[in-house]
């Protein structure tokens, strides 16, 4: 799972490994990242399945 800014630049990789089918939660901490408040996108890839969703970061 990766996070992108509105320009499409990758700003974080949250998960970069294969996992068995199931439900998972990911905690996204911005403490080590220098991100501004604004709109970001997170993308999940699983085989041929790709889903991108929008999120808003407020500081």
Keywords:
mainly beta, 59 residues, globular, 4-stranded antiparallel β-sheet
Protein architecture, described:
It is a single chain. 0% of the residues lie in helices and 44% in strands. The relative contact order is 0.30. It is built from no helices and 4 strands. It has a 4-stranded antiparallel β-sheet, with no helix packed on it.
Q: What's the N-to-C terminus distance?
A: 22 Å
Shape: globular
Low-confidence stretches: none
Estimate the helix proportion, in percent: under 10%
Strand content: 35-45%
Q: Strand count, sense and closure of the main sheet?
A: 4 strands, antiparallel
Layout of SSEs?
Layout: E1 2-5, E2 10-13, E3 38-46, E4 49-57
How would you concisely characterize the structure shown here?
With 59 residues, the protein is mainly beta. 0% of the residues lie in helices and 44% in strands. The protein has one domain (2-57).
């Amino acid at each position: 799972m990766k996070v992108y800014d509105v320009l499409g630049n990758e700003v974080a990789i949250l998960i970069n490994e294969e996992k068995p089918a199931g439900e998972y939660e990911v905690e996204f901490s911005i403490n080590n990242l220098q991100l501004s408040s604004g709109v970001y996108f997170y993308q999940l890839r699983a085989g041929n399945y790709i889903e991108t969703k929008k999120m808003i970061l407020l500081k």
